[in-house]
Amino acid sequence: MQRPVFVPRERRGNLTGMDKPLVGIVMGSRSDWAGLMEHTVATLTELGIPHDVRTLSAHRTPDALLEWIAAQEADGVEVFIAAAGGAAHLAGVVAAKTLKPVLAVPMPSKLDGIDSLLSMVQMPAGIPVPTLAIGKAGAINAALAAAQILAAKHDSIGAALADDRRRRAAAVLADPDPRLPAG
Ligand code: RP5
Prior knowledge:
Layout: E1 23-27, H1 33-46, E2 51-55, H2 62-75, E3 79-85, H3 90-97, E4 102-107, H4 114-121, H5 136-151, H6 155-173
Parallel strand pairs: 1-2, 1-3, 3-4
Helix pairs in contact: 1-5, 5-6
């Protein structure tokens, strides 16, 4: 039996162990997950930010994508993150259907992700798609940028971000002499 694309929150079980999602993450393919968008989810989880994550494609599953966007809006999601590779129109389609910010993460591709990056960053004026770096760095920074947007309204997320900055600084300062063996 085919799994349903969208299961209402109250019947979703404890997929992420979190409450009402504030961030909706969508990726164009399962191939965007391992080593890439899993870092978005890990970063949001570390920051304690509830999220929904789904594989849906602008060209392979357009109707299900629109249904998911509407469901996320109804659930109260405040930021979207969209990841795709190649002719990457997913983020643009999401942005066309919501007034919430849509952060785009270009996925590595046969053209090293340059095609994905340009597809996302070159949106015509009127429908913005703020675009992060290609691959893992963009996946992590999308989560942090979403947190920064949310922090304007949610104080606990601002506090979690400040802790994250302190941890990153401490990691550098713990091992500042590059002439010594790492660690
Ligand atoms: C895009 O095409 C996806 O976002 C993915 O990055 C790329 C390749 O997808 P697969 O052929 O691996 O499913 O739609």
